Amino acid sequence: MTLREMFGRMAAWFRRDALDREMAAELEAHVDMLARDLEREGMSPADARVAARRQMGNVTSQREQSRDAWGFPRLDAVGQDLRYAIRGLRRSPAFTAAVIATLALGIGANVAMFAVLDRLMFRPLPYVKAPDHTHLVYLQTTFRGTTSTNTVFPYLRYLTLSEAKGVGEFAAQSEWRFAVGSGDASRVRKVAGVSASYWPLFDAPPSLGRYFVASEDDMAAQPVAVISDALWTNDYARGDVVGKSLKVGVVNYTIVGVSPPGFVGATAGLSPDVFVPISTIPLNQSPFSQQSFRADYNWDWVQVLVRRRPDVSIDAASRSLSEAYIRSRALARAINPRVMADSLVHPRAIAGPVKQSAGPDAGLEARVLLWVTGVAAMVLLIACANVASLMLARVIRRRREITVRLALGVSRGRLAGQFITEGLLLAVLGGIAGVILAQWAGVAIRGLLLPEGSPFKLAEDWRTLGVALACATGAALITAIGPAIVATRSDLAATLKAGAREGTHQRSNARLLLLVGQGAMSALLLVGAALFVRSLGNAQNVSLGYDARPVVEAVTDYRGFPMDSATSVAMRRRMLAAAQAIPGVRYAAAFNSRLFGTNTAELAVDGIDSVSALGRFNFQVSTPDYFKVMDIKLVRGRSYTDADGVGAPRVVVVSEAMGKALWPGRDPIGQCIRVGIGYRSDPRQQPCTTVIGIANNTAQQNITDDPRYMYYLPESQFMPGGLRALLLRMDGEGRNEMERVRRALNAAMPGDGFVVVRPLQEVVDDKSRSWRLGATLFVAFGALALLVTVVGLYGMINYNVAQRSHEMGVRVALGARPAELVRLVVGQGMLLMLASVAVGLFGAWVAGRWVQPLLFQQSARDPIIYAAIGVMMVVVAAVASTAPAMRAARADPNSALRSD
Fold it and tell me: Is the pTM higher than 0.85?
């Protein structure tokens, strides 16, 4: 077809109704002229008109050929099929609603999960110049078969890595929560410390002012800051802020620019409110940190970004980074000879994804999320199987009608096209409903997975809408092709010879297979849900060695209030006194490390060459009431008291596991440990610290810690005046007392200082988040899959009973009792479910090897869970079959006999 012909057809297609009327009038005029000619030859008017029409031939066929010549026949055929499908669906509102609802559940689940997964793993960060060439640096070591992956390093290591040859551009970033502002306007906000080389990684011109440069990325330079567009809008009404002062933590910065809207940099979650030079971050830390961050390797706080050159592969970049990492370890070993040899830990660096959930450090939660996404895909398959079953039933019911249409000349291809068009229409409607459902359900899923406040507007997200369209198209093809094939394979002669009842009562093996497949996938999902629920229960019931539920954590921020050592001690006492005075507070203690934080030091024990080779030993420095606040039981000995102060012999309380590891077969009490806490502190040069008590094992790093090596040190001997956080044990639940505690402690703070309060149980709950996530989503999707399967089973049995009403009536006439008919129908449903359960449980057993690493103290092949799921599904099948069975029991034998 030439371009001119195509445009001509397009013009004619838009006025096809007028052209059709003109053509009809023209054909009628030709008939009239022929009739007049025949009348002149002596024929009567009536005979002449009949003869004229006979000479003209098939006028309808001529009109169709003419329409094909001036239009687009295939497009017209699609339009006709679409109108036919709409009319057919309007005549069956119950069928239409059931199909749309089923597809909406399946498509909505997948759209919601993709939207979350895309934001966590795949979606490129906004404004990044070359997202495929921008990486986060991961450092790995492997010791005794265990691989550790880190993305946070000392500042000195960043400097060494940035010297890697032939890689590209390097930048550093670090995320913090600091108080921003002064007085009543101060709020704890997200602050990003970034190097000056950070900004060229992005194509993000500032909305106002400029970004800071290399000369300003220095602790000795005048502190400058860039604020976010949101902070500029909310706090400054988009006015001129360049040159104004902004207090961040204890440092007064000068604002030099504003980042563009939606700029998050390479950080996770929401945009930082303030960007400051990374070298100024230590100004908000202790004097020790300010002195050591450029001279030591003890403080991990910097992430390293790299944009590799286009001619450098990822493997080449990783090799160059690994060489720089090994050099960095050599420099660290020169400062601290106890850094383990490279031959023991096999150090290497990886240029990986900027989003850590997609990198080698993805963690348990990301793996659970991938499994749940697969579960959502299974829910869609179950929904498609159910819809295909419904459409097959509809085809069987319409088999005689379809056969008549084929006999009248409709081509099998055109008939198949009508079924596919109907499937596409249903899938599009289901997809629209699914996106609406995903937006509603996605808000809840976002709360489980995405950082707080992350946007979730699916209607504005073309990537997610594209996935919704792909799901709808796939669902349409899956659900429509099978029924189309069945419809076009009709035996014309056999169906036309049969009566109406025989033409519709057809047994469909395809429907049986679809139903078995639905049940099998439902069984597999329910097994997964039960496994994660048991894992969550195990995680929640595991003994932590303390009780966090009534405990409130209060972290103080003195905002630069000048304090020497004596003032710090006095302030700590003042805050403890204020805490003890709060009604409902039973005990209060100061401590140095938040629960599940990292706190290690070099240890030396007589008779042991390397204590670190035995494992990781964590310490906690606190005031004496720490054991009462946390409800940590002492197995033997005593805890430290106020008498164990400055000048008194150093003392320590160790956990049972630590005591057994360091002094196997001996009594730990009275033994000597040398603790190297402090800047470049060598434990062998430290005085002896005597073990005075043995405490119950506690989880301080992770709830799955094993063994739990922990030791406790008195604040007055190791960090006098250095503790800035408090723990308060309340009479009631800690989460109910936060505001009262915050107000009381804020009143005791000096200057602009304030207190951030949260329940300690919240910290504990975060550690079981991955199992809670798996349990919640597996249960939700498993229940959804079971619901769809039960509806499909009910629909199939109910349909079979309706089609077999004549047979049931004959059975009753021959003496069958109602109870026997009920057993027949219910038995059919239970037999189908038994087959489904057998297939599903076998699939769950096979998948168990991959699911096992995601579980906590729970076997993936637990026979009790398998048996319970099997029994539950068979019982559900029996219940779903009861209503159709009761209908079968009421079959009328007189109607059946009269029909014969």
Answer: no
